[in-house]
Structure to design on (94 residues):
């Protein structure tokens, strides 16, 4: 039986200039995007046809209280593999 998620992440749907210091682009850093997060993001404005709207992620314990251009946010538990990806991305970006 797999281990339960040990970390939560905050996912952001953002419009405008990328606030790179506040969160990371999961695609740029190879962080897996859970299907339910992608569905949530699309219901909050994420559209591949609009390059000014994108998805960002940050570890919940590291996330800024406000992200520039934020349209929506959600908390989501991470599985160990995704947690490791996010930690590595966060350290690389910061």
């Amino acid at each position: 039986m797999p281990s339960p998620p040990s970390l939560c992440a905050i996912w952001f749907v953002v419009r405008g200039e990328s606030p790179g210091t506040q969160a990371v682009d999961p695609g740029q850093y190879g962080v897996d995007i859970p299907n339910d997060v992608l569905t949530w993001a699309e219901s909050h404005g994420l559209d591949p046809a609009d390059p000014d709207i994108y998805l960002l992620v940050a570890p919940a314990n590291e996330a800024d209280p406000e992200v520039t251009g934020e349209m929506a946010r959600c908390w989501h538990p991470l599985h160990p593999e995704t947690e490791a990806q996010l930690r590595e991305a966060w350290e690389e970006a910061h």
